[in-house]
Amino acid sequence: MTLTEDRPIFQQIAEQLEEAILSGAYPEESQVPSITEYSVQYRINPATALKGINLLVDAGLLYKKRGVGMFVASGAREKLRQSRRERFYQDYVQRMVREARNLGLTDQELLELLERGMKEDGH
């Protein structure tokens, strides 16, 4: 992963870990890279790496085994999926429905547009 300047680094660390959990790269109960590994790999302050990891600890996605490291919590992948689905609904679906209403689209027309988009995407 390449860190960018458009968002805080700690958020990017947390997002990278979330993506890895969702993709299965870090299965439940597997160990994730240490704070030291993140700080060395990305040349960042360990406190910054810790802040990103703590976002996932606070969300119940990671837990610490004293003296061993950080691990993916049981149920983390499903918790992330549910969270992302809700965010998708709020960020995209609700906005799309409001815009469809503003354009005077019927429910059927909106569904047809969705089906068209899915076909064009190969689904």
TrEMBL record:
Gene3D superfamilies: Winged helix-like DNA-binding domain superfamily/Winged helix DNA-binding domain. One of its GO terms (molecular function) is DNA binding. CDD domains: WHTH_GntR (cd07377). InterPro entries: Tscrpt_reg_HTH_GntR, WH-like_DNA-bd_sf, WH_DNA-bd_sf. This is GntR family transcriptional regulator. The keyword DNA-binding applies. Residues 7-75 form the HTH gntR-type domain. It comes from Dysosmobacter welbionis. Keywords: DNA-binding, Transcription, Transcription regulation. It comes from the Bacteria.
